[in-house]
């Protein structure tokens, strides 16, 4: 089997989830491990990774009881920690290698951990809940295994995991990208949303409207919006569906040109994954008897004739041939919702209906769908048309001369230069920005620990060795990162450039002088 | 003893573990168990490792009793002699009787000082017993209270600041504090910055807070972490948790660890560990490694006996002395002719077999001369000056002491003849010859005479009183002045020297354009000049904060992978900081946070011009002997 060759390639990255409450007794340490990648790493090696992590969590609590170990920086590896749920830890270990572009920003990697956990909870509920449901751990292990492997497959380039590195410095995972909508279109959207929510009668529905890969409207709370938006962009939007194979993460769109032979890579990545699955039988507790829903499985969504998106991911649940409507958990209300997705051209519409409000199962859902078609299809046509007319193309948000990322931390919204434009920057500039962001991350974290009211206000302009201006500005919960190459050498020129950008695109938020 | 019972619980207690251990012993046990549990499954090598991490733990715990008694009951004199003996053992050093006598009496004095004057007034409520296992809840209140007191102490230490002297605290108390604490004390855990030196077998060598012997278990844990990562083929550099950073530095058989919740960047903390290691080498040379080769469980603490005060003074300088991160030294401002006169007589003696002749006033260099091609690294100067200034014995009589300059030759001892010419000014004559005492004594007499005749010592005293560059005095007109740093060099400084208009405008708000402070570092000279602190930053808390802001700025500018950057502008709620790095110099300037950017830039240019105008007086030019 090609298994060994697969894992040697992937040795550079390790990823594990463990529960500090399990395996407390000698000889039962394996019980702690809920997930380990690569799965075929010998158990002693797995245990040593977890032992070190656990040891440092305990050690750091001596001095910092309120926040245990967040990162271990060693000469050759970074270990990134995230306590996803109380006592349930995710640790990712990445190898550092300047030649192979393995220059990381810890917070960016931690956001990957956060993202996969939030998505998992959205579909399966919390890890702890699944553990409580079946204390032997088999259930949670099988779920985590298939879910995370499906998630990671989006990062596979060939046989290698390509996690976000310094080249992704002008991106912010865990935020939503919005479409700027004109006044008229906004009114149309609003009225569409009203109609959507009335489709299920009196039960409280939520909706999410996307145009291409951009959010147009949401009635969900910010956290749920991020999760659902992320999922939609990963698996539902027209770009993903039309590509036929959705292995390219939304983060890498626009970069496709630089990675030739996408198709062949996809083929390999699929087989790589199959090999991983083959090894599942050897996984502790993974007896393979569980029925596992794999919401992140590739190529499972298609657009039906009626415009609704269908998938058989959830079907086998009842063993019938009739597709079952997917369900998700809302983080805020802890409600279980049916997920209905409808697509018209570039417009994707996600409607969430409380499971409790639909008494007769699938029949009830199709009734709502019918209602939706009857009441809203015309409006959807109009909205799509309006938005398409106003759409500025792939480079709609390019600002000439600037390479930027704008993050609104309060609303979890970000906007950035199009990826195709960011690739024109030199490696030096991007590394410098990545390091600067690392500094800002630390200052922000520190301010967080100081408690509310200690929001960081910071402005940094660096003229780097390669003469690029690398800029970070944090004010009132908003962040601006910028690289200006081929710019004038005076500091005043750089601050002028920020000022202009701020006045034009950020309502002057970053204009301090 | 507490550490003894630690040990027994670590083996008995492993069946019942709490993921949120309250007492440190539990957590240490847990960590070791976690690491040990791996050993069970690890096929090779690791079993030995973890058991060895417990091994020294036990041994030291037993041994600590003896050492404690030894320390309490014997006089410093005997202790010091034993250190001398050991030194001789591995490096063939011979102390002259005179030195031994004087330095040992000095150490006696220090010990008493640190025990009576320092430890007693610090909170009586936090005895080592209070924080003992199982009773941590009871002590938490007192622990926090004590911390508050200490904090205030530390922050208030410069409050006697008179606006002229440097950042160094006059009321800072040397020597080790909180000796009664150990890792079970809540107060100990809450200290903002810990430094540890330990051996690769986990034996404690130095701890900033608490008694090393009581920290044996903790030391073993640090060792276990380091070697665990090393067994995995890697080297741990840093662990971050909330506001805390744990920084590791491995130097052969010596491990250094800093645990800090200050805002300092990793690079700075690592640099501080490097300096602490250098300080240790300065006292012992690197040949101490051989002791570990012979006996991995070698106990180094007796070798460093009585040097707590040297380390604590170095650690204190990490919060006020820019030389610790700039890797440059600073000079006392003096008229060019005065410094030349001093240099000439030093050069004279240097020609007679002295390797380096250094005349310093506190941490500032008056003059410095070395024989051909022998150049003194600024870090070595910092460590040497710290060693001399922190050891009380050097003040009381002339001394001849073996020292090692880690950047010059880490393997060998040099011999330093040290003599204070007045209360702040001291002469250091370095030689390779162990029997040069009387020769160097003669040299010193000659130097002292010349310095006295040429009035250099008086000038030095006056310069100390007058202070250095003040941001308020930044020349307004941009035209280059070929002049001197005056009005206050060579003549007493009068308030009326300043135009009234000028005084009114800037009194209490620093210099023009909101300039509060600057540091200028000349790259070729390895020297820096730092302005006197102005009124907006004259509390010690503000100075420390500014110092740390500079430190972060330095680290950010000098990133190893991509640096150095050329310019940096940084504004936060405390300052506007500007940094400018060229091939010749680096300028760091701090402004009012509301300062205007354009004006600040202009002001920086004026500062650079000003420094160039007075460089004859603020820098030691032509330090290379070829230019004399």
TrEMBL record, chain A:
GO terms for cellular component: Mon1-Ccz1 complex. This is CCZ1/INTU/HSP4 first Longin domain-containing protein. Residues 15-125 form the CCZ1/INTU/HSP4 first Longin domain. Belongs to the CCZ1 family. Transmembrane segments: none annotated. Signal peptide: none annotated. InterPro entries: Ccz1, CCZ1/INTU/HSP4_longin_1. PANTHER family: VACUOLAR FUSION PROTEIN CCZ1 HOMOLOG-RELATED. GO terms for biological process: vesicle-mediated transport.
UniProtKB/TrEMBL annotation, chain B:
This is Vacuolar fusion protein MON1 homolog. Plays an important role in membrane trafficking through the secretory apparatus. Residues 353-446 form the FUZ/MON1/HPS1 second Longin domain. Residues 193-314 form the FUZ/MON1/HPS1 first Longin domain. One of its GO terms (biological process) is vesicle-mediated transport. It comes from the Eukaryota. Residues 514-614 form the FUZ/MON1/HPS1 third Longin domain. Residues 1-16 have a biased composition (Low complexity). PANTHER family: SAND PROTEIN-RELATED, VACUOLAR FUSION PROTEIN MON1 HOMOLOG. InterPro entries: FUZ/MON1/HPS1_longin_1, FUZ/MON1/HPS1_longin_2, FUZ/MON1/HPS1_longin_3, Mon1. Residues 1-27, 43-85, 115-141 are annotated as: Disordered. Residues 122-141 have a biased composition (Polar residues). Belongs to the MON1/SAND family. Residues 67-83 have a biased composition (Basic and acidic residues). It holds the Pfam family Fuz_longin_1.
């Amino acid at each position: 089997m090609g298994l060994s060759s697969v894992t040697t390639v992937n040795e550079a990255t390790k990823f594990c989830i463990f529960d500090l409450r399990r395996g407390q007794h000698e000889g039962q340490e394996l019980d702690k491990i809920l997930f380990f990648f690569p799965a075929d790493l010998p158990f002693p090696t797995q245990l040593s990774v977890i032992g070190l992590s656990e040891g440092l969590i305990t050690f750091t609590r001596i001095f910092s009881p309120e926040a245990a170990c967040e990162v271990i920086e060693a000469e050759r590896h970074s270990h990134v920690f995230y306590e996803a749920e109380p006592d349930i830890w995710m640790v990712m270990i990445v190898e550092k290698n300047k030649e192979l572009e393995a220059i990381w920003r810890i917070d960016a990697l931690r956001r990957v951990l956060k993202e996969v956990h939030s998505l998992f909870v959205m579909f399966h509920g919390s890890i702890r809940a699944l553990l409580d449901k079946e204390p032997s751990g088999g259930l949670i292990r099988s779920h985590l295994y298939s879910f995370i492997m499906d998630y990671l497959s989006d990062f596979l380039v060939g046989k290698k995991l390509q996690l976000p590195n310094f080249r992704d410095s002008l991106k912010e995972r865990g935020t939503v990208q919005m479409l700027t909508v004109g006044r008229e279109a906004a009114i149309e959207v609003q009225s569409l949303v009203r109609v959507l929510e009335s489709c299920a009668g009196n039960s409280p529905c939520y909706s999410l409207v996307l145009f291409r890969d951009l959010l147009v409207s949401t009635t969900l709370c910010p956290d749920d919006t991020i999760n659902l938006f992320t999922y939609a962009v990963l698996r539902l939007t027209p770009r993903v569906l039309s590509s036929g194979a959705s292995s390219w993460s939304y983060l890498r769109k626009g970069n496709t040109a630089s990675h030739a032979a996408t198709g062949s890579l996809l083929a390999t990545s699929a087989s790589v994954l199959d090999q991983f699955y083959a090894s599942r039988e050897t996984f502790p507790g993974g007896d393979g008897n569980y029925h596992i829903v794999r919401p992140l499985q590739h190529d499972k969504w298609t657009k039906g004739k009626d415009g609704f998106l269908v998938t058989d991911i959830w079907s086998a649940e009842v063993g019938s041939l009739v597709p079952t409507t997917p369900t998700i958990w809302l983080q805020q209300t802890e409600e279980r919702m049916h997920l209905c997705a409808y697509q018209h051209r570039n417009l994707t519409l996600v409607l969430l209906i409380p499971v409790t409000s639909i008494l007769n199962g699938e029949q009830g859902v199709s009734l709502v769908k019918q209602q939706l078609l009857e009441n809203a299809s015309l409006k959807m046509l109009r909205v799509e048309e309006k938005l398409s007319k106003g759409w500025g193309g792939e480079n709609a948000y390019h600002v000439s001369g600037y390479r930027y990322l704008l993050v609104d931390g309060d609303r979890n919204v970000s906007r950035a230069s199009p990826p195709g434009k960011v690739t024109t920057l030199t490696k030096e500039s991007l590394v410098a920005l990545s390091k600067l962001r690392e500094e800002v991350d630390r200052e922000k974290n520190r301010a967080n620990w100081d408690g509310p009211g200690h929001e960081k206000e910071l402005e940094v302009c660096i003229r780097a060795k390669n003469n690029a201006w690398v800029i970070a500005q944090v004010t009132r919960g908003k962040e601006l990162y910028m690289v200006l190459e081929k710019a004038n050498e005076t500091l005043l020129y750089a601050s002028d450039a920020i000022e202009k950008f701020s006045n034009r695109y950020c309502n002057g938020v970053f204009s301090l002088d | 003893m507490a550490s003894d019972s630690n040990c027994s619980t670590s083996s008995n207690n492993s069946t019942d573990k709490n993921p949120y251990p309250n007492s440190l012993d539990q957590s240490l046990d847990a960590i070791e168990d976690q690491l040990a549990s791996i050993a069970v499954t690890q096929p090779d090598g690791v079993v030995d490792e973890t058991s060895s991490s417990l091994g020294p733990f036990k041994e030291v715990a037993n041994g600590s009793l003896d050492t404690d008694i030894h320390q309490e009951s014997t006089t410093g004199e005997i202790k010091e002699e034993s250190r001398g003996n050991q030194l001789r053992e591995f490096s063939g050093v011979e102390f002259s009787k005179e030195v031994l006598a004087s330095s040992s009496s000095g150490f006696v004095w220090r010990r008493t000082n640190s025990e009576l004057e320092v430890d007693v007034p610090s909170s009586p409520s936090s005895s080592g017993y209070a924080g003992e296992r199982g009773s941590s809840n009871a002590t938490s209140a007192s622990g926090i209270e004590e911390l508050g007191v200490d904090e205030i102490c530390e922050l208030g230490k410069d409050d006697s600041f008179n606006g002229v002297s440097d950042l160094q605290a006059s009321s800072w108390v040397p020597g080790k504090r909180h000796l009664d604490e150990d890792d079970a004390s809540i107060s100990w855990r809450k200290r903002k910055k810990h430094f540890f030196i330990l051996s690769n077998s986990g034996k404690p060598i130095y701890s900033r807070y608490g008694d090393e012997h009581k920290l044996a278990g903790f030391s073993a844990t640090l060792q276990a972490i380091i070697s665990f990562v090393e067994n995995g083929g890697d080297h741990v550099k840093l662990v971050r948790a909330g506001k805390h950073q744990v920084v590791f530095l491995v130097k052969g058989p010596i491990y250094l660890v800093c645990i800090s919740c200050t805002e300092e960047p990793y690079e700075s903390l690592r640099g501080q560990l490097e300096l602490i290691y250098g300080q240790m080498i300065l006292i012992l040379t690197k040949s101490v490694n051989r002791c570990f080769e012979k006996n991995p469980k070698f106990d180094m603490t007796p070798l460093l006996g009585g040097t707590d005060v040297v380390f604590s003074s170095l650690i204190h300088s990490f919060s006020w002395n820019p030389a610790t991160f700039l890797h440059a030294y600073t000079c006392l401002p003096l008229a060019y002719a005065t410094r030349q006169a001093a240099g000439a007589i030093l050069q004279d003696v240097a020609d007679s077999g002295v390797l380096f002749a250094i005349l310093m006033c506190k941490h500032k260099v008056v003059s410095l001369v070395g024989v051909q091609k022998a150049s003194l690294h600024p870090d070595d100067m910092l460590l040497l000056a710290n060693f001399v200034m922190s050891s009380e014995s050097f003040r009381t009589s002339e001394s001849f002491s073996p020292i090692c300059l880690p950047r010059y030759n880490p393997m060998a001892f040099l011999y330093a003849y040290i003599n204070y010419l007045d209360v702040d000014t001291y002469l250091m004559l370095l030689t390779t010859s162990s029997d040069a005492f009387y020769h160097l004594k003669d040299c010193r007499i000659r130097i002292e005479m010349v310095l006295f005749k040429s009035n250099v010592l008086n000038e030095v005293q006056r310069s100390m009183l007058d202070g250095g560059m003040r941001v308020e005095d930044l020349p307004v007109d941009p035209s280059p002045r070929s002049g001197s740093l005056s009005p206050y060099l060579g003549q007493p400084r009068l308030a009326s020297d300043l135009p009234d208009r000028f005084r009114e405008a800037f009194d209490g708000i620093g210099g023009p354009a909101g300039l509060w402070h600057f540091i200028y570092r000349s790259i070729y000279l390895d020297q820096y000049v730092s302005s006197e602190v102005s009124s907006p930053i004259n509390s010690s808390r503000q100075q420390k904060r500014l110092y740390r802001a500079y430190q972060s700025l330095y680290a950010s500018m000098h990133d190893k992978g991509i640096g150095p950057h050329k310019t940096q502008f940084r504004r936060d709620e405390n300052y506007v900081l500007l940094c400018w790095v060229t091939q010749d110099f680096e300028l760091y300037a701090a402004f009012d946070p509301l300062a205007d950017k354009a004006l600040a830039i202009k002001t920086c240019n004026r500062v650079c011009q000003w420094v160039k105008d007075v460089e004859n007086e603020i820098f030691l030019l032509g330090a290379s002997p070829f230019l004399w």
